[in-house]
Structures are given as C-alpha cells and as structure tokens.
Amino acid sequence: MNASEQAKGLDVATKIAAIVNLFKSQFPDAKADLKPWRNDPDTQDLVDPQSIDIGFHFPGWSRRVQSRSILVQIRFHLDPVEQTKRIIGIETVGFNHQGEAWKLSTIENWQLIGNYKPVADVEEKLKYFCRQVFEVFNSIQKNPST
C-alpha cells in the first residue's frame, strides 16, 4: 500500500520519513515517491494492505544500480488477536525500461536475482539499507492504525 496512505499516525509517519532518509543516505540522487501505486481498481487489487510501499526514482538510468526506479515494499504480518503489526520482510525491485531488472528479498535468503543486476557495492548498500529498516521497525506496534 502506498506509504502516503499508511502514514496515519505520528509513529508510522516518522518511520516512513526515517526510511526515506536511510535510502537517500545510500543513494543521494534518488527522489522518494510515497505514492508508487495508481489509484485505479486493477492496481488496488494487487496492492498488499499490510505493506508500506515507497518508490525511489533516479534522475536517469543508473548503470551502477542497473535501474531507473526502485520499489521498496516493507511487508508486515498483522496479528488479529493481539492487534500487533510485525515486520516480516522487505522486497526491493529495480526497474529499467524493460520492466523488472532485479529483485532483492529479505524473505528469500537475501539473494539478489534478475537479468540486470547492480554492481556488488550497490547490492551491499541495498542489504545494509534493509538491515536498517528492520531496526526502525524492531518494536511491535500495538495499534496498527498508528
């Protein structure tokens, strides 16, 4: 779900801002997009309501990153009994003019896969960023709407 729609309280809004700053500390040229998903019915059917999705766009195609845009999806599990939300993983996907170029998932062994992979130091920056995001969300949220 678009990060702008998930920022319903000060705690989540602050964490989203921290994530943007963490990403920009690794990739200073990137511009954050808190609404990477369109608001049409077909797109909304594909959106995970338990995720925070942020797009990052580079000024042009980046040879080192092998993409023009990166979608970051922070996935959560909502425990309906305890009303807690816990981070379960992060998926980052790089896009070029042909579509998906590569994917890094912390859910799937932290391996970067794809036809157009970024250079090794960029892969390490992405993994470092993901570890930092886990630190931002390491506390349990008692109220998922905040």
From TrEMBL:
Domain of life according to the entry: Bacteria
Name under which the protein is recorded: Uncharacterized protein
Record organism: Gloeothece citriformis (strain PCC 7424)
